[in-house]
């Protein structure tokens, strides 16, 4: 459609992307062979057909298993380069990427191996495509806060190349308040703060992320819509929400894209953005997420432009860098 062509051509920033969730089955297979790792799958097709989830935990089990093929700095470089090269075609000009260091250090892969490969790809993308990048280190919320403190300690040599910390993995039963102290420490270190909240968890978790973690940006936030006072607060505080339509569909946060709340969020004045979350697992990168909502919802040209502008507004670029993109 004409609206989709318009969306595809607009410059965008991606603010909610787990780099380990961009691992395509083809690369997973190649890295398994290169590193002589046994996968429980015999072919690329078998990997793809295993990607059937009915909730977040089903997905996470497969996601953590998939990342076991990532062993060397070159693997992390190849993974990151493949993602950056792919979204360049979607007119993504700036990315703020999440990585899960504990998903690697727990397997004996050093922190420096993972971050080293990612940062080398960032440098090359700047030189080759003029793409700007930032890195956000996520703490796994199903693990103790003490482990998050250990991870923050391991990050010390790279702090000037890490923009912020986030909170991801199994949401229900692991509220933001569990990480209040480590987020306070990250803030003292000058890091930006984001957290997944209100994906499967209740509005109460969004309040905790705001009040106890003092987040700068809210990842997902869908269930905020259940609480009128919370909606009004998010609007008033101009909080950016990193919404992930195809992820919401695949993890059954919504029944189908025609019932996706993104249009309602925009109509309420929330600063929503479009993101892919884990594109290899959820069936699409940035523009496929736009296609999903454009086909399913009655979005206007203004809505589409607002979504793209919100992505730069809500980014951690400087005001000058934002002006250059808007
Ligand atoms: N890790 C990777 N993707 C995630 C998501 N959508 N929610 C929580 N943790 C994640
Ligand atoms: Zn996510």
From TrEMBL:
Zn(2+) binds at residues 16, 18, 196, 277. Its cofactor is Zn(2+). Residues 11-326 form the Adenosine deaminase domain. Its EC number is 3.5.4.2. Substrate binds at residue 278. Keywords: Hydrolase, Metal-binding, Nucleotide metabolism, Zinc. The record marks 220 as: Important for catalytic activity. GO terms for molecular function: hydrolase activity. Belongs to the metallo-dependent hydrolases superfamily. Adenosine and AMP deaminases family. Adenine deaminase type 2 subfamily. This is Adenine deaminase.
């Amino acid at each position: 459609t004409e609206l989709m062509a318009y969306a595809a051509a607009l410059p965008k920033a991606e603010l909610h992307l787990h780099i380990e969730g961009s691992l395509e089955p083809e690369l997973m297979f190649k890295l398994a062979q290169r590193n002589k790792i046994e996968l429980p799958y015999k072919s690329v097709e078998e990997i793809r057909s295993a990607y059937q989830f009915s909730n977040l935990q089903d997905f996470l089990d497969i996601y953590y298993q998939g990342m076991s093929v990532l062993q060397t700095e070159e693997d992390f470089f190849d993974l990151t380069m493949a993602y950056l090269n792919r979204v360049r075609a979607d007119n993504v000009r700036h990315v703020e990427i999440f990585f899960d260091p504990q998903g690697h250090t727990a397997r004996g892969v050093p922190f420096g191996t993972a971050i080293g490969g990612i940062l080398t790809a960032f440098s090359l993308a700047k030189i080759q495509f003029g793409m700007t990048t930032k890195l956000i280190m996520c703490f796994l919320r199903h693990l103790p806060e003490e482990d998050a403190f250990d991870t923050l300690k391991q990050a010390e040599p790279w702090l000037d190349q890490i923009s912020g910390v986030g909170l991801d993995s199994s949401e229900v039963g692991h509220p933001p308040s569990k990480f209040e102290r480590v987020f306070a420490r990250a803030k003292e270190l000058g890091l930006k703060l984001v957290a997944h909240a209100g994906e499967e968890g209740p509005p109460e978790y969004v309040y905790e992320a705001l009040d106890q973690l003092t987040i700068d940006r809210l990842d997902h936030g869908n269930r905020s819509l259940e609480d009128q006072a919370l909606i009004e607060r998010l609007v008033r505080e101009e909080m950016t929400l990193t919404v992930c339509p195809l992820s919401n569909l695949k993890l059954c946060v919504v029944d189908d894209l025609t019932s996706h709340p993104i249009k309602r969020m925009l109509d309420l004045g929330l600063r929503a953005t479009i993101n892919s979350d884990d594109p290899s697992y959820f069936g699409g990168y940035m523009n496929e997420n736009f296609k999903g909502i454009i086909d399913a919802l009655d979005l206007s040209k203004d809505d589409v432009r607002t979504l793209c502008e919100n992505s730069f507004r809500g980014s951690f670029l400087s005001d000058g860098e934002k002006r250059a993109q808007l």
